[in-house]
Amino acid sequence: MPTTVDLLIRNARPVTCVDDDCAVSPASYIAIAEGRIAAIGPTASLPSTLTAHEEIDAEGALLTPGLIDCHTHLVYAGDRAREFEMRLKGASYEEIAKAGGGILSTVRHTREANAADLMAQSARRLKGLIQHGVTTVEIKSGYGLSLKAELKCLQVARSLGQTHPIDVRTTLLAAHALPPEFAGRPDDYIDHVVEHIVPEAARLQLADAVDAFCENIAFTPAQTRRVFEAARAHELPVKLHAEQLSNQGGAALAAEFDALSADHLEHLDEAGVFAMARAGTVAVLLPGAYYFLRDTHLPPVALLRDYGVPIAISTDCNPGTSPTTHLPLMMNMACTLFRLTPAEALLGVTRHAARALGLSASKGTVEPGKQADLCLWDADHPAELSYAIGASPLRARIHRGSVTNQ
Ligand code: DI6
Ligand code: FE
Questions:
Q1: 296-351 confidence digits (pLDDT tens)
Q2: Which atom of ligand 1 lies at the shortest distance from residue 80's CA?
Q3: What are the two backbone dihedrals, phi and then psi, of residue 401, each rounded to the nearest 5 degrees?
Q4: pLDDT (tens digit, 9 = 90+) per residue, 229-257?
Q5: Beta carbons within 10 angstroms of residue 398's beta carbon
Q6: Which of 12, 165, 296, 304 has CB atoms 3.0–4.6 Å from 309's, for a disulfide?
């Protein structure tokens, strides 16, 4: 460790998230240099010669890794509050989608918005995530559905990361829905995606991964496979919206392509769980969408545990099925709705969420060498982070070694 560091946090009680039980360590110091954790240890072992440019007395606050929201559709224009009303009067999500509403209504608004407007609308949501302790967010495209509009959304996502104290990972989700100009010709649209959109997003380095919506109201496993093959040809890792509304065998297909994650998974069966376990694919559960759609088909949490599949939790922030930026509330819902333990919920937004983005080497735990993305919480025990409904006791948030909110 250098003798002078940039930031020294004293009297924190770290939950490093290295162990599955999320145990709380005794009072510790954390030394940060050049945006990384330089050292961590019990207060008694703090070297007396160490000096720091800035110090924080955590006064016994819990310290966790910065939260990671590994599945969002945060870049879009407009909202779908009216559709929410329709659903409350009895229309189903599938019926609204088939009638040209749903995703396609957000596509219309997103295509019409210029980049500055899209950026301003999306920045409001990003600030919501930041306020709740999120230091890394994944943002998908998928409301453009044309080469130009998909690239615009990815570019806005990248710009959001450059102008806010948060790391953004982008995912190309061109295979989210069938755009109106390809109505009745899904295979032609997939041709367009694999021949033009994936190659151009890759060439411009605008996408860190590729995703698809494999579902009876979206794309078939055969079409998804073609998108994955294009991603592989451009050396981009894949993720998949799988088994949300029906069992299409999407998770097993994703595992075949060594997917970083398969997400939603309410209708996942044991064969899918087995395939994910073998491939090391993370299960990303999205309790906000389950809640908002008033779903009753629970994801197979016990099977995921039995097979040792890592479970991540995310907001799925999107206008149709999960209009939220409150990641701690998703931890609460993961516990109440899916029966995760509070420790599992915390790992789901830290270590396992990092893995779902391919970022395990630099993020997700509090260890020397990792990026200094940290949260301090006014809480005695990590269970309190999942326990509170709609409140998060965030005391301070640190991104790349800089305090950004206190
Ligand atoms: N699954 C979802 O929950 C979102 N997309 C997806 O593939 C919903 C997107 C929307 O309704 O706008
Ligand atoms: Fe989603």
A1: 999 999 999 999 999 999 999 999 999 999 999 999 999 999 999 999 999 999 99
A2: 12
A3: 85, 0
A4: 999 999 999 999 999 999 999 999 999 99
A5: 26
A6: 304
pTM over 0.90, yes/no: yes
Cα torsion 297, 179, 111, 127 to 10°: value is 20
Pocket test for ligand 1, best of 72, 73, 93 (most atoms within 8 A of CB): 73
Please, what sign has the CA dihedral across residues 204, 185, 238, 195?
negative
| Residue 362, burial from CB neighbour count under 10 angstroms (0-12, 13-18, 19+) | middle
93 confidence band (pLDDT: 50, 70, 90): confident
Ligand nearest to the CA of 72: 2
What average pLDDT does the chain have? Answer: 96
The residues near 56 (Cβ < 8 Å, ≥ 6 apart) are: 7, 8, 9, 10, 376, 396, 403
Index of the ligand 1 atom closest to the CA of residue 320: 11
Ligand 1 test: best mutation among 75, 79, 103, most atoms within 8 Å of CB?
A: 103
Instruction: Report which protein residue has its CA nearest ligand 1's atom 11.
Output: 320
Distance 353 CA to ligand 2 centre (A): 15
Name the H helices within 34-92: 81-88
Domains of the chain: 3-65+365-403 (2.30.40.10), 67-356 (3.20.20.140)
Protein residue with its CA nearest to atom 4 in ligand 1? 321
